[in-house]
Amino acid sequence: MRILICSSALFFLLNSCIQKTKVDLLVYNATIYTVDSSFSIAEAMAVNNGKIVETGKTSGLQSKYSAKEALDAQAKFIYPGFIDAHAHFVGYGQSLYTVDLYDSKSIQEVVQRVKSFDSTHPDEPWILGRGWDQNKFPGKAFPTNEMLNELFPGKPVLLERVDGHASVANDKALQLAGVKAGDKIQGGEIETKNGKLTGILIDNAVDLVVARVPPQTPAKLKAALIEAQKNCFAVGLTTIDDCGLSYTVVSFIDSLQKTGDLKMRIYAMLSDATANYDYAFQKARLNDSVGRGKIKTDLLHVCGFKVYADGALGSRGACLLEPYSDKPGWAGFLLSSRQHLDSVAKIIYDHGWQMCTHAIGDSGNRTMLTIYGKYLKGKNDLRWRIEHVQVINENDFKLFGEYDIIPSVQPTHATSDMYWAGDRLGAGRVKGAYAFKQLLDQNGWIPLGTDFPVEDISPFKTFYAAVVRKDAKGWPANGFQTQNALTREEALRGMTIWAAKANFEENEKGSLEKGKFADFVILDEDLMKEVPEKLLDVKVMKTFVGGQMVYERK
Ligand SMILES: [Zn+2]
After folding, report:
1. How many Å lie between the centroid of ligand 1 and the Cα of residue 163?
2. CA of 35 to the centre of ligand 1 (A)
3. If you measure from the C-alpha of residue 284 to the centroid of ligand 1, how many angstroms do you get, rounded to a whole number?
C-alpha cells in the first residue's frame, strides 16, 4: 500500500514535469532584440493566439512549451516589427499605379516616362505621376508644361513633385480645373510668367486640379493597397502611420482588414476637413452609424488629426522666420491662417484627440509650438505631435520638452535634402535643421518614419540615415551634421517602441515582451553590429504579424 501511494505520487510528479504548455509557435536559436526597457536579448520566444507568451533561453522554453509549429531561426536576428511613424500608405499604393518619376534627371526624361506610361495605359482618362525633383535637373529650375501641352493637347496630365507640395499640370488639366493666368489662392501659388501659366502649382493650388481627378474605383484602390502591403511586409514593416486620410478611406481600410485582405496594422490620422471632424465628433449631426469617435481594433487605430502648417523646403513653401538664403525677400507661407490652425487645435483639444501637424520651416514650427502651448499649457500626456520638425530656431527646442510635444522625424529627409538644404537656409540656420539628437534630448524619446512615398519605404534606409547620416554612396565622408546622429539603440527604439508610443500603443507593440502582439522580423544580419557600409544590404528573411508569417524571402 505504501509503495503504491509512493509510485502514484511519483507518477503525478513526473507527469506534471513533462506536461508542457501548448502554444502556437516557438521560435528558437535566435538573437532576439526584445527592445524592452533594459534592451535585453533573448534566444527564444513562445507565441500563442497572436501574442507573446514568454521570451527566454532556447533550452528553457523548449522544455516548458510544446508548440504546434517550431521555428529554428538558424542563429539569425529578430527585432520587433518595424513601425513607420509617418507615411502615406494609401498614397504609396496609388503611386504604384501612376507614372514613376523618381530620380528623373531632366524634364525630357520626365516627359519620356509619361509617354511610355501613356502607351501602356491608353485608357486612363488622366495621366498622373509623382516623384520629379528639379534639384536633380540641369539648372535646378522648376519645369514648365510646354512639352506636355504639345504631346497631350486633349488629355489632362498632373505630375507631382517628390515632396507632394508642388505639381506641374498641362493646359488641359488647368483648363478642366478652371485655373487662369494671374489667379491667386491662399496658402498656394499659381505660377504665371509673361502673362501665361507655366503649369507649376504650389501647395493649395495643386488641390484645384486634384479636385478634378476622377476618384479611384474601390476595386482599383483595393488592388493598390494589397500591392502596397506586400512591398511593406517585404521590408519588415508591421505598423504604418498613415498621415491624413478621409474617413471614407479609413472605413474602406477597416473593411479590407475585416475581410482579411489587409493584415497591415494602420494608425490612421484623419485629415483637416469638416467632414472628418463631423465624422469624429458629431455623431448626432451626421445622423447615421458612421460617426463613431475614436476607432480601436487590433489592426486599426484612429484617434488623431493631421493638419498642415506649411509646405516643404525643396519647393520653398516651408514658412521661415527670415527669407530663404537662395530667394531674397521670400520666406514661404503658412498653408492656412493662424486663426484656422488655432481653431482646429481647440476643437481637437476639447475632444481629447491627438493633433499631428506638418511643420517644416522654423516659422511654421514656432507657430505650431505656440498654438500647442496655448492649449497644452504644461506637462501632459496628450502626445500632440509635430511632423517633420525640419528647421527649428535655437530658442524653440526647449518648447518640445516644456509641453511634452513629440517631434516626429524622418531621417532620410536629412540625407535627401543635405545637398541643397544649406543653399536654402544658409550656414547658420542649417545647424538647427534635421537636429534629431537635440530633439530626442527634449523628451527622451523620438518616433522615426520615412514619409513614403516621398522617400523609399525601407526602414533600413531610416536606420542608416539616422545613425550614419550619409547617402548610399558614403557621402559626405564625415557624415552630415553628425552631432545630430542617433545611436543604433536610439534609432531602433525610434522605429519600434517610440513609434508605438507616439501612437499610444506602447503597451501592445513596439517590443517583444509578454502580452504584446507577436509582430517581428527575422533579419540575415545584426543591425546592431553590422559595419555601416553594409547596413543597407541587411535583408528581411521573414516578417510576422500577430504570430502569422506574412512574408518570406525566396
Ligand atoms: Zn507626410
Report:
1. 8
2. 27
3. 32
Q: Is the pLDDT of residue 355 over 60?
A: yes
Distance 270 CA to ligand 1 centre (A): 13
Cell of 477: 565622408
CB 300 within 8 A of CB 247: no
Q: Which 8-state DSSP code applies to residue 351?
A: T
Q: What is the pLDDT of residues 307-333, one digit of tens each?
A: 999 999 998 999 999 999 999 999 999
Per the document, the length of the chain is 554
Ligand 1 centroid from CA 451, angstroms: 5
> Pick from 131, 135, 137, 130: which is nearest to 106 by CA?
137
Task: Answer whether 451's CB lies under 8 Å from 413's CB.
Answer: yes
d(CA 86, ligand 1 centre) in Å: 6
Ligand 1 centre to CA of 311 (Å) is: 10
Model confidence band, residue 126 (pLDDT cutoffs 50, 70, 90): very high
Q: Which residues contact 329 (CB under 8 A, 6 or more apart)?
A: 323
Of 285-294, 355-364, 404-413, the one with minimum mean pLDDT is 285-294
The 10 Å CB-count burial string (b at 16+, else e) for 469-504 is bbbeeeeeeebbbeebbbebebbbbbbbbbbbbbbb
Q: Is the peptide bond before 453 cis (omega within 30 degrees of 0)?
A: yes
Q: Return all residues near 448 (Cβ < 8 A) that are at least 6 apart.
A: 85, 409, 410, 411, 462, 466, 491, 494, 495, 498, 499
Residue from 190, 173, 165, 174 nearest 88 by CA: 165
Q: Report residue 509 as a C-alpha cell.
A: 507593440
Question: DSSP label at 135?
Answer: G
Nearest to 279 by CA among 233, 247, 249: 247
Question: Cα separation of 472 and 416, whole Å?
Answer: 10
Tell how far the Cα of 330 is from the centroid of ligand 1, in angstroms.
Answer: 24
CA of 475 to the centre of ligand 1 (A): 25
Centre of ligand 1 to C-alpha 119, Å, is 31
